[in-house]
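TA notes, week 10

Several of you asked for a full example with nothing omitted. So below is the full record: C-alpha coordinates for the whole chain, then the designed sequence directly under it. When grading your own attempts, check the secondary structure regions first.
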Protein backbone atom coordinates (compact mmCIF):
# COMPACT_ATOMS: atom_id res chain seq x y z
CA UNK A 1 0.00 0.00 0.00
CA UNK A 2 1.26 3.51 -0.85
CA UNK A 3 2.13 5.77 2.04
CA UNK A 4 2.03 9.57 2.03
CA UNK A 5 4.81 12.04 2.72
CA UNK A 6 4.73 15.77 3.45
CA UNK A 7 5.38 18.57 0.92
CA UNK A 8 8.64 19.26 2.76
CA UNK A 9 9.86 15.67 2.34
CA UNK A 10 8.75 15.71 -1.29
CA UNK A 11 10.63 18.96 -1.87
CA UNK A 12 13.80 17.40 -0.49
CA UNK A 13 13.32 14.26 -2.57
CA UNK A 14 12.73 16.18 -5.80
CA UNK A 15 15.30 18.87 -5.02
CA UNK A 16 12.86 21.75 -5.51
CA UNK A 17 11.32 24.24 -3.11
CA UNK A 18 8.38 23.37 -0.91
CA UNK A 19 6.48 26.21 -2.56
CA UNK A 20 7.07 24.68 -6.00
CA UNK A 21 5.69 21.36 -4.72
CA UNK A 22 2.54 23.18 -3.54
CA UNK A 23 2.19 24.92 -6.92
CA UNK A 24 2.53 21.60 -8.78
CA UNK A 25 -0.10 20.08 -6.47
CA UNK A 26 -2.44 23.08 -7.00
CA UNK A 27 -2.01 22.64 -10.73
CA UNK A 28 -3.16 19.02 -10.39
CA UNK A 29 0.14 17.76 -11.76
CA UNK A 30 1.02 15.42 -8.89
CA UNK A 31 -0.99 12.20 -9.07
CA UNK A 32 -2.73 11.35 -5.82
CA UNK A 33 -1.74 14.53 -3.91
CA UNK A 34 -4.42 15.58 -1.43
CA UNK A 35 -4.81 18.31 1.18
CA UNK A 36 -5.17 17.69 4.88
CA UNK A 37 -6.20 20.93 6.55
CA UNK A 38 -4.16 23.47 4.62
CA UNK A 39 -1.21 21.12 3.89
CA UNK A 40 -0.50 18.96 0.90
CA UNK A 41 0.42 15.30 1.37
CA UNK A 42 1.87 13.39 -1.53
CA UNK A 43 2.00 9.64 -2.28
CA UNK A 44 5.54 8.48 -1.50
CA UNK A 45 5.82 6.87 -4.95
CA UNK A 46 4.57 9.97 -6.86
CA UNK A 47 6.77 10.97 -9.79
CA UNK A 48 8.17 14.48 -10.11
CA UNK A 49 6.29 16.17 -12.99
CA UNK A 50 8.34 17.58 -15.86
CA UNK A 51 8.81 21.30 -15.33
CA UNK A 52 6.80 23.08 -18.02
CA UNK A 53 8.82 26.22 -17.45
CA UNK A 54 12.12 24.39 -17.95
CA UNK A 55 10.75 22.84 -21.13
CA UNK A 56 10.05 26.32 -22.43
CA UNK A 57 13.52 27.44 -21.38
CA UNK A 58 12.04 30.01 -19.05
CA UNK A 59 13.78 29.18 -15.78
CA UNK A 60 16.70 31.37 -14.85
CA UNK A 61 19.69 30.55 -12.73
CA UNK A 62 18.40 30.86 -9.19
CA UNK A 63 19.43 34.39 -8.29
CA UNK A 64 16.85 35.35 -5.72
CA UNK A 65 16.00 38.95 -6.42
CA UNK A 66 14.05 40.72 -3.75
CA UNK A 67 12.58 44.21 -3.26
CA UNK A 68 15.05 46.86 -2.10
CA UNK A 69 12.25 48.86 -0.41
CA UNK A 70 9.38 48.30 1.97
CA UNK A 71 6.28 49.49 0.18
CA UNK A 72 2.72 50.09 1.35
CA UNK A 73 0.44 47.53 -0.26
CA UNK A 74 3.51 45.41 -1.08
CA UNK A 75 2.35 42.08 -2.43
CA UNK A 76 4.94 39.85 -0.74
CA UNK A 77 2.28 37.69 0.83
CA UNK A 78 0.29 37.25 -2.35
CA UNK A 79 3.19 36.31 -4.60
CA UNK A 80 2.41 32.57 -4.45
CA UNK A 81 -1.22 33.17 -5.30
CA UNK A 82 -0.34 35.50 -8.14
CA UNK A 83 2.22 33.04 -9.48
CA UNK A 84 -0.36 30.26 -9.37
CA UNK A 85 -2.70 32.41 -11.44
CA UNK A 86 0.08 32.98 -13.97
CA UNK A 87 1.11 29.32 -14.16
CA UNK A 88 -2.49 28.20 -14.52
CA UNK A 89 -2.19 29.64 -18.05
CA UNK A 90 -1.03 27.33 -20.77
CA UNK A 91 -0.21 30.29 -22.99
CA UNK A 92 3.36 31.45 -23.28
CA UNK A 93 3.99 35.16 -22.82
CA UNK A 94 7.10 36.85 -24.13
CA UNK A 95 6.50 40.24 -22.47
CA UNK A 96 5.86 41.25 -18.86
CA UNK A 97 4.43 44.60 -17.85
CA UNK A 98 3.87 46.02 -14.37
CA UNK A 99 2.83 49.67 -14.73
CA UNK A 100 2.21 50.30 -10.97
CA UNK A 101 5.29 48.51 -9.72
CA UNK A 102 5.78 50.06 -6.24
CA UNK A 103 8.28 47.92 -4.31
CA UNK A 104 7.90 45.19 -6.96
CA UNK A 105 7.27 42.06 -4.84
CA UNK A 106 5.90 40.12 -7.81
CA UNK A 107 8.18 41.83 -10.32
CA UNK A 108 11.36 40.69 -8.52
CA UNK A 109 9.98 37.20 -8.11
CA UNK A 110 9.18 37.04 -11.83
CA UNK A 111 12.58 38.48 -12.72
CA UNK A 112 14.32 35.81 -10.62
CA UNK A 113 12.62 32.91 -12.27
CA UNK A 114 11.53 33.67 -15.80
CA UNK A 115 13.01 34.91 -18.99
CA UNK A 116 10.73 37.38 -20.69
CA UNK A 117 12.02 38.90 -23.89
CA UNK A 118 10.80 42.35 -22.94
CA UNK A 119 9.90 43.80 -19.56
CA UNK A 120 8.26 47.13 -18.69
CA UNK A 121 7.84 48.60 -15.21
CA UNK A 122 6.38 51.97 -14.32
CA UNK A 123 5.02 54.01 -11.46
CA UNK A 124 3.74 57.53 -11.01
CA UNK A 125 6.05 58.11 -8.03
CA UNK A 126 9.10 60.00 -9.39
CA UNK A 127 11.38 59.31 -6.46
CA UNK A 128 10.62 55.61 -6.56
CA UNK A 129 11.29 55.38 -10.29
CA UNK A 130 14.45 57.44 -9.84
CA UNK A 131 15.70 54.75 -7.43
CA UNK A 132 15.06 51.98 -9.96
CA UNK A 133 16.86 54.04 -12.64
CA UNK A 134 19.85 54.78 -10.41
CA UNK A 135 20.19 51.09 -9.45
CA UNK A 136 20.12 50.30 -13.16
CA UNK A 137 22.70 52.88 -14.27
CA UNK A 138 24.73 54.13 -11.28
CA UNK A 139 24.70 51.34 -8.74
CA UNK A 140 28.32 51.82 -7.57
CA UNK A 141 27.80 55.48 -6.69
CA UNK A 142 24.58 54.60 -4.92
CA UNK A 143 26.21 51.81 -2.88
CA UNK A 144 29.07 54.12 -1.86
CA UNK A 145 26.62 56.75 -0.54
CA UNK A 146 24.40 54.21 1.20
CA UNK A 147 27.40 52.54 2.82
CA UNK A 148 28.53 55.87 4.26
CA UNK A 149 25.06 56.61 5.66
CA UNK A 150 24.56 53.11 7.03
CA UNK A 151 27.94 53.03 8.77
CA UNK A 152 27.40 56.45 10.33
CA UNK A 153 23.82 55.67 11.44
CA UNK A 154 24.47 52.25 12.95
CA UNK A 155 27.38 53.59 15.03
CA UNK A 156 25.10 56.16 16.70
CA UNK A 157 22.97 55.90 19.81
CA UNK A 158 19.23 56.76 20.04
CA UNK A 159 19.34 60.57 20.22
CA UNK A 160 22.13 60.90 17.66
CA UNK A 161 20.25 58.61 15.31
CA UNK A 162 17.16 60.77 15.59
CA UNK A 163 19.14 63.90 14.70
CA UNK A 164 20.76 62.11 11.77
CA UNK A 165 17.44 60.75 10.46
CA UNK A 166 15.78 64.17 10.53
CA UNK A 167 18.79 65.83 8.92
CA UNK A 168 18.60 63.30 6.05
CA UNK A 169 14.85 63.90 5.79
CA UNK A 170 15.47 67.68 5.57
CA UNK A 171 18.16 67.24 2.91
CA UNK A 172 15.86 64.92 0.97
CA UNK A 173 13.05 67.50 1.06
CA UNK A 174 15.35 70.42 0.21
CA UNK A 175 17.00 68.70 -2.74
CA UNK A 176 15.08 68.89 -5.96
CA UNK A 177 15.30 65.77 -8.11
CA UNK A 178 17.39 66.59 -11.18
CA UNK A 179 19.87 64.62 -13.27
CA UNK A 180 22.74 65.81 -11.13
CA UNK A 181 21.02 64.93 -7.82
CA UNK A 182 19.55 61.60 -8.88
CA UNK A 183 22.08 59.37 -7.04
CA UNK A 184 21.98 61.55 -3.92
CA UNK A 185 18.17 61.48 -3.88
CA UNK A 186 18.00 57.72 -4.46
CA UNK A 187 20.35 57.18 -1.50
CA UNK A 188 18.25 59.45 0.76
CA UNK A 189 15.07 57.76 -0.47
CA UNK A 190 16.30 54.23 0.27
CA UNK A 191 17.83 55.25 3.62
CA UNK A 192 14.61 56.96 4.75
CA UNK A 193 12.47 54.07 3.55
CA UNK A 194 14.45 51.61 5.66
CA UNK A 195 14.69 53.72 8.78
CA UNK A 196 11.33 55.51 8.86
CA UNK A 197 8.17 54.37 10.62
CA UNK A 198 6.88 51.18 8.97
CA UNK A 199 8.52 51.93 5.62
CA UNK A 200 5.76 54.37 4.78
CA UNK A 201 5.96 56.85 1.96
CA UNK A 202 3.78 59.81 2.84
CA UNK A 203 4.02 63.42 1.76
CA UNK A 204 2.16 66.49 2.98
CA UNK A 205 0.23 68.94 0.82
CA UNK A 206 3.45 70.66 -0.16
CA UNK A 207 4.85 67.33 -1.34
CA UNK A 208 7.32 67.08 1.56
CA UNK A 209 8.09 63.64 2.99
CA UNK A 210 6.89 63.74 6.59
CA UNK A 211 7.17 60.22 8.04
CA UNK A 212 8.81 60.08 11.50
CA UNK A 213 11.74 57.83 12.37
CA UNK A 214 11.01 54.14 12.96
CA UNK A 215 12.10 52.18 16.01
CA UNK A 216 14.47 49.66 14.46
CA UNK A 217 17.48 48.55 16.49
CA UNK A 218 19.44 47.30 13.51
CA UNK A 219 17.79 48.48 10.28
CA UNK A 220 19.04 46.67 7.18
CA UNK A 221 19.48 49.86 5.19
CA UNK A 222 20.61 48.06 2.06
CA UNK A 223 22.24 44.88 0.91
CA UNK A 224 25.13 45.37 -1.50
CA UNK A 225 24.92 41.98 -3.16
CA UNK A 226 21.21 42.30 -3.65
CA UNK A 227 21.56 45.76 -5.27
CA UNK A 228 24.23 44.39 -7.61
CA UNK A 229 21.96 41.52 -8.63
CA UNK A 230 19.10 43.96 -9.23
CA UNK A 231 21.44 46.15 -11.29
CA UNK A 232 22.20 43.21 -13.60
CA UNK A 233 18.60 42.12 -13.83
CA UNK A 234 17.36 45.63 -14.70
CA UNK A 235 19.62 46.05 -17.72
CA UNK A 236 16.93 44.89 -20.14
CA UNK A 237 14.00 46.43 -18.32
CA UNK A 238 12.21 49.52 -19.61
CA UNK A 239 11.55 51.81 -16.63
CA UNK A 240 8.94 54.52 -17.03
CA UNK A 241 7.82 57.28 -14.69
CA UNK A 242 4.19 58.26 -15.14
CA UNK A 243 0.63 57.11 -15.46
CA UNK A 244 -0.02 53.41 -16.16
CA UNK A 245 -1.68 54.35 -19.46
CA UNK A 246 1.81 55.11 -20.87
CA UNK A 247 2.30 51.33 -21.07
CA UNK A 248 -0.40 51.04 -23.76
CA UNK A 249 2.05 50.95 -26.69
CA UNK A 250 4.14 48.24 -25.02
CA UNK A 251 1.22 45.89 -24.47
CA UNK A 252 0.15 43.36 -27.11
CA UNK A 253 -1.35 39.87 -27.18
CA UNK A 254 1.92 38.33 -25.96
CA UNK A 255 2.01 40.44 -22.80
CA UNK A 256 1.27 39.46 -19.23
CA UNK A 257 0.22 42.60 -17.35
CA UNK A 258 -0.03 42.84 -13.57
CA UNK A 259 -1.77 45.82 -11.97
CA UNK A 260 -1.63 46.52 -8.27
CA UNK A 261 -3.31 49.91 -7.88
CA UNK A 262 -3.54 51.82 -4.61
CA UNK A 263 -6.19 50.38 -2.37
CA UNK A 264 -9.70 51.59 -2.33
CA UNK A 265 -9.73 52.42 1.41
CA UNK A 266 -11.08 49.50 3.44
CA UNK A 267 -12.36 51.76 6.19
CA UNK A 268 -13.09 55.41 6.69
CA UNK A 269 -9.90 55.74 8.73
CA UNK A 270 -7.64 53.82 6.35
CA UNK A 271 -5.48 56.29 4.51
CA UNK A 272 -3.26 53.89 2.64
CA UNK A 273 -4.17 54.99 -0.80
CA UNK A 274 -2.12 58.18 -0.44
CA UNK A 275 1.23 57.25 -2.01
CA UNK A 276 1.32 60.73 -3.45
CA UNK A 277 -0.79 63.83 -3.34
CA UNK A 278 -3.43 62.36 -5.73
CA UNK A 279 -5.82 59.87 -4.21
CA UNK A 280 -6.93 56.83 -6.22
CA UNK A 281 -10.67 57.25 -5.86
CA UNK A 282 -13.56 55.32 -7.44
CA UNK A 283 -13.36 57.37 -10.65
CA UNK A 284 -9.70 56.34 -10.92
CA UNK A 285 -10.64 52.68 -10.34
CA UNK A 286 -13.17 53.00 -13.18
CA UNK A 287 -10.60 54.65 -15.48
CA UNK A 288 -8.26 51.74 -14.75
CA UNK A 289 -11.06 49.27 -15.53
CA UNK A 290 -11.59 50.93 -18.92
CA UNK A 291 -7.86 50.70 -19.68
CA UNK A 292 -7.88 47.02 -18.65
CA UNK A 293 -10.83 46.35 -20.94
CA UNK A 294 -8.97 47.99 -23.79
CA UNK A 295 -5.83 45.88 -23.41
CA UNK A 296 -7.84 42.76 -22.66
CA UNK A 297 -9.43 43.40 -26.05
CA UNK A 298 -6.03 43.09 -27.77
CA UNK A 299 -5.50 39.69 -26.11
CA UNK A 300 -3.11 40.55 -23.25
CA UNK A 301 -3.34 38.46 -20.08
CA UNK A 302 -4.38 40.69 -17.17
CA UNK A 303 -4.00 40.13 -13.46
CA UNK A 304 -5.22 42.79 -11.05
CA UNK A 305 -5.11 42.74 -7.26
CA UNK A 306 -7.07 44.95 -4.92
CA UNK A 307 -8.49 45.07 -1.43
CA UNK A 308 -11.91 43.50 -1.00
CA UNK A 309 -14.44 46.15 0.04
CA UNK A 310 -16.55 43.32 1.46
CA UNK A 311 -14.06 43.12 4.32
CA UNK A 312 -15.79 46.14 5.74
CA UNK A 313 -19.18 46.21 4.07
CA UNK A 314 -20.53 42.83 2.87
CA UNK A 315 -22.93 44.71 0.58
CA UNK A 316 -20.20 46.65 -1.21
CA UNK A 317 -20.11 45.07 -4.66
CA UNK A 318 -18.00 47.77 -6.33
CA UNK A 319 -15.40 45.44 -7.87
CA UNK A 320 -17.80 42.51 -8.33
CA UNK A 321 -20.03 44.74 -10.47
CA UNK A 322 -17.20 46.50 -12.30
CA UNK A 323 -15.37 43.28 -13.20
CA UNK A 324 -18.45 41.08 -13.58
CA UNK A 325 -17.15 39.60 -16.85
CA UNK A 326 -13.72 38.73 -15.35
CA UNK A 327 -12.60 35.92 -13.01
CA UNK A 328 -12.63 37.13 -9.41
CA UNK A 329 -10.92 35.19 -6.61
CA UNK A 330 -10.81 36.12 -2.95
CA UNK A 331 -7.68 35.19 -1.02
CA UNK A 332 -6.76 35.80 2.59
CA UNK A 333 -3.84 38.12 3.45
CA UNK A 334 -2.80 40.11 6.47
CA UNK A 335 -2.20 43.80 6.01
CA UNK A 336 1.45 44.60 6.59
CA UNK A 337 1.47 48.35 6.70
CA UNK A 338 -1.21 50.28 8.47
CA UNK A 339 -1.24 53.36 10.60
CA UNK A 340 -3.26 51.92 13.45
CA UNK A 341 -2.53 48.66 15.21
CA UNK A 342 -6.25 47.78 15.20
CA UNK A 343 -6.29 48.07 11.41
CA UNK A 344 -4.02 45.01 11.14
CA UNK A 345 -5.26 41.48 10.78
CA UNK A 346 -6.45 38.99 8.22
CA UNK A 347 -8.56 40.31 5.35
CA UNK A 348 -9.44 39.20 1.87
CA UNK A 349 -7.72 40.50 -1.21
CA UNK A 350 -9.16 40.24 -4.68
CA UNK A 351 -7.30 38.66 -7.58
CA UNK A 352 -9.06 39.53 -10.81
CA UNK A 353 -8.02 38.09 -14.15
CA UNK A 354 -9.32 37.76 -17.72
C1 LIG B 1 -0.30 49.05 -3.98
S1 LIG B 1 1.07 49.93 -4.61
C2 LIG B 1 1.93 48.70 -5.50
C3 LIG B 1 2.68 47.80 -4.58
C4 LIG B 1 3.55 46.74 -5.29
N1 LIG B 1 2.76 45.72 -5.92
C5 LIG B 1 4.53 46.11 -4.33
O1 LIG B 1 4.68 44.89 -4.28
O2 LIG B 1 5.21 46.87 -3.61
C6 LIG B 1 0.39 50.95 -5.84
C7 LIG B 1 1.38 51.75 -6.66
O3 LIG B 1 0.68 52.44 -7.71
C8 LIG B 1 1.32 53.67 -7.95
N2 LIG B 1 0.37 54.53 -8.69
C9 LIG B 1 -0.67 55.27 -8.20
N3 LIG B 1 -1.34 55.87 -9.20
C10 LIG B 1 -0.72 55.50 -10.36
C11 LIG B 1 -0.95 55.79 -11.73
N4 LIG B 1 -1.96 56.57 -12.12
N5 LIG B 1 -0.11 55.26 -12.66
C12 LIG B 1 0.94 54.47 -12.27
N6 LIG B 1 1.20 54.16 -10.97
C13 LIG B 1 0.37 54.66 -10.03
C14 LIG B 1 1.69 54.15 -6.57
O4 LIG B 1 2.74 55.11 -6.61
C15 LIG B 1 2.11 52.83 -5.88
O5 LIG B 1 3.49 52.61 -5.96
Amino acid sequence: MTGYISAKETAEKWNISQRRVAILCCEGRVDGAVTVGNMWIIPSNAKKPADKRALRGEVRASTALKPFLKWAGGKGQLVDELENTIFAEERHFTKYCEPMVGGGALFFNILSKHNFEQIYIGDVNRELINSYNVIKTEVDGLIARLQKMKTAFLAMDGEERKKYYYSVRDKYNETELTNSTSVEKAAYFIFLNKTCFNGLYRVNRKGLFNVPMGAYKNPAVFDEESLLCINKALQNVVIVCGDYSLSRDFIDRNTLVYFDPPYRPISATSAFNSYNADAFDDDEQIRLYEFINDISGVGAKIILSNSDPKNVDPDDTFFDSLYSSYNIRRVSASRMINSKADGRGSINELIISN
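The domain at 138-225 is CATH 1.10.1020.10 (Adenine-specific Methyltransferase; domain 2). Use that as a sanity check on your answer.
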